[in-house]
Amino acid sequence: MPEQDITRYIVNPDVSCREEDADGALLFNPDTDEVLVVNATGALLWQALAEPRRLADLLAVLSERCDHVPADQVAADVSEFLERMVARGFIGVYEGGNG
Predict the structure, then answer these.
(1) Which structural domain range is residue 24 located in?
(2) Where residue 53 sits, what CATH number does that domain have?
(3) What is the CA radius of gyration of the chain?
(4) pLDDT of 36-47, one tens digit each?
């Protein structure tokens, strides 16, 4: 089974999120003292990551909202978002575990 199929992502519980409006949210990571502005799509992903989810789960969430965007573009954008957020400590990674 490819690693991406078992990797689960979840928000860092120490990060606070303040939804600004339909345009997005502000995230504050007290571990790094960093504030990050995410757009509406990033805020949707953030909400979805309240529980551990695989990349495929996140793509399914977005495919409902982004049906006019090619699936490969959505996958690339979500992967980039996750990479950036994990690297900056806003999102954590769980590997393995039960289905």
Answers:
(1) 3-89
(2) 3.90.930
(3) 13
(4) 999 999 999 999
Contacts of 12 (CB under 8 A, 6+ apart): 29, 31, 89, 90, 91, 92
| Residue at 94 is within a domain | no
- Cα→Cα distances 4→9, 15, 95, Å: 10, 24, 9
The answer as to whether 76 is a domain residue is yes
Q: With beta carbons less than 8 A apart as the criterion, state whether 48 and 58 touch.
A: yes
Domain count, the chain: 1
pLDDT for 42-73, tens place per residue? 999 999 999 999 999 999 988 877 778 788 88
56: three-class secondary structure by DSSP: helix
The structure's pTM equals 0.84
